[in-house]
Amino acid sequence: MKNIARYILPLTLAGMIPLGACKSMMTKGNNDNNVEKEAVLPTDREKIVQPVSAVYTSEELSKGILKGDWAIETVNGKKAVGETAPFIKFVPDQKRIYGNNGCNIINGGYEYNPADSTLTFSKVISTMMACGMPDITDIEVNAALGATHYYSWRLDGDDYYLTFYDADRNEVMALMHQNFQFLNGTWAVIEIGGVAVNVPDMKLVIDVDEGKVHGNTGCNILNGSLETDMDAANSISFQSIGLTRMACPQPNYETQLVVALEEASKAKPLQGGRVAMLNNQGETVLLLERTSDK
Rounded to a whole number, what is the largest CA-CA distance in the chain? Predict the structure, then answer.
């Protein structure tokens, strides 16, 4: 389910309706504060996430801050299933959420209070695309957002997890934080497949917002695309890798670099300004180190 985090919204505002109109999330009361308004599509979704929203500090963790992109893992104890990976993005500056319930785009407001762990969503609306895939949990996702009253979250290893509860403190949704911004910047390649590499010109420049990678193999110019996946923590893939065609003197690691990029399926931040690229078996295929060199 690739490219979800860079999902470009193709639908017009005319295709948006309040979730309450589908009876999956009813708005309480009749005052002006509860009047459904026209949806505002998340323009920043075209650029994965806001730069400030990716990484949690220990202070924010202790304060219960809600921000950034979260993949919906389960809803009412059942695995969340969709034609696209269900997710929610919290935008604190706007006090709004954007996302996808697995079939349709959703957005709305949210209010929370870390002091008593309360969380509520308001004026949440959805597009009306027909969903062809059977057994998806889009309606359940909508209903769970409407029922949410409390939240909690925790750090488990390298991953952050968020849980929503109803007014009776029954779990209604579990989510996992997604963080890709740590990949932004220029990286020296220091290991390929566990073998140390000492090629000063071998560098990669990753632009998460644009979904691009370019660099130098030590001989040729490299260009390609970066795709991200909301189905698993920090899941990535490099696609459409292209090279110039200069003849390279030996020894060179060009082929090994390209193969490693194609095998990479997860990026893991390490101490000391390093990042490990792992394959599907959890093996490190690339070890990168941040550099200021262009």
Answer: 75
**What digits encode the pLDDT tens for the residues 31-74?**
443 333 333 333 333 333 333 334 566 677 678 888 888 889 99
DSSP 116: T
- Residues 36 and 30 sit within 8 Å (Cβ to Cβ): no
What distance in Å separates the CA atoms of residue 25 and residue 120, rounded to the nearest whole number?
12
The pTM of this model reads 0.59
d(C-alpha 52, C-alpha 183), whole Å: 14
Give the pair of three-digit tokens for residue 47.
């650029």
Q: pLDDT digit string (tens) for 199-246?
A: 999 999 998 878 899 999 999 999 999 887 666 666 888 999 999 999
For 19, 56, 215, the CA distances from 145, given in Å and listed in that order, are 10, 23, 43
Which strand (E) or helix (H) includes residue 145?
Answer: helix 138-147
